[in-house]
Amino acid sequence: xxxxxxxxxxxxxxxxxxxxxxxxxxxxxxxxxxxxxxxxxxxxxxxxxxxxxxxxxxxxxxxxxxxxxxxxxxxxxxxxxxxxxxxxxxxxxxxxxxxxxxxxxxxxxxxxxxxxxxxxxxxxxxxxxxxxxxxxxxxxxxxxxxxxxxxxxxxxxxxxxxxxxxxxxxxxxxxxxxxxxxxxxxxxxxxxxxxxxxxxxxxxxxxxxxxxxxxxxxxxxxxxxxxxxxxxxxxxxxxxxxxxxxxxxxxxxxxxxxxxxxxxxxxxxxxxxxxxxxxxxxxxxxxxxxxxxxxxxxxxxxxxxxxxxxxxxxxxxxxxxxxxxxxxxxxxxxxxxxxxxxxxxxxxxxxxxxxxxxxxxxxxxxxxxxxxxxx
Length: 375
Fold this sequence. Notes:
Layout: H1 2-25, E1 29-35, E2 39-41, E3 45-54, E4 60-70, E5 73-75, E6 84-86, E7 89-98, E8 102-112, E9 116-128, E10 135-149, E11 168-171, E12 182-187, H2 199-205, E13 209-213, E14 215-218, E15 220-225, H3 240-259, E16 263-268, E17 276-277, H4 284-295, H5 305-310, E18 319-324, H6 329-340, E19 344-349, E20 360-363
Parallel strand pairs: 2-10, 15-16, 15-18, 18-19, 19-20
Antiparallel strand pairs: 1-3, 3-8, 4-7, 4-9, 5-8, 6-7, 9-10, 11-14, 12-13, 16-17
């Protein structure tokens, strides 16, 4: 009888704790997360802080969280267990032990290895009772977003055109000469303003000499990225390795233009049904806005390149860079139309090289999708 009584008491205790645990434990469990930076560049690290709090009086000896994140956000081995893959996402586990009315804080280092706008969608919280009999779980929305801006590619991977973009170039003739480009001196004709007089040459030659200036005009560059895989129907998007290579090259060209004082812009037939284009990029602020546009550019293309270029406004541009995964007659038709308008062209491709008399064709390697491990 005593043994039966003990068994009954044990079963009652187990049943009571299971009932209390199942009804109150997870309801009193709170999970919050935040990151220290919402915008970083490729290769930089952000810190994710997770706070798990037990607001109830029931101890929680084993609590597991499983955070869903992009596989391009690589968690450090020092702050997480091995992450399991699920397509483009990974699931980052965490284990906690909480007493009554207690909390636990964990800081994780995350390396952002590829451009994009990434969201921490949700986390699954699972709690188990002291005897490991009852397990209860629920999903918690996280709602965190980090924007990873692209970085320029190495110029050694994509040699720039022989005619690099600069802010000002000399021309044969223009309406007015440029006071910042001096080509020498000439005799004074009486029509030049006094501030043009070159006093050194005047003293040396014994008669009035004035500075002779060249004529110049501003250069402006348009980067056109073709996100079409091939000239096929229906239109399909290019391989992500090609797209990422073009984004990094576009970043490099735009950076070079802004640094040298050359106006520039970006346009692509991908991203939306009608394509995406930036405004004129002149300042560092404009450049950063263009980086945000490139960071959020989806791998999507429904607009054929030849249709896109027919509506593309190239007025005011002196140089056009075409980035494409393939080269066919439609690409060269576009560059020929630009040449007839006096616009200089250069074509970069990750595919086979086809030479043309109307433009320079250069090769760039595809982007490597190998995920690096965070330190």
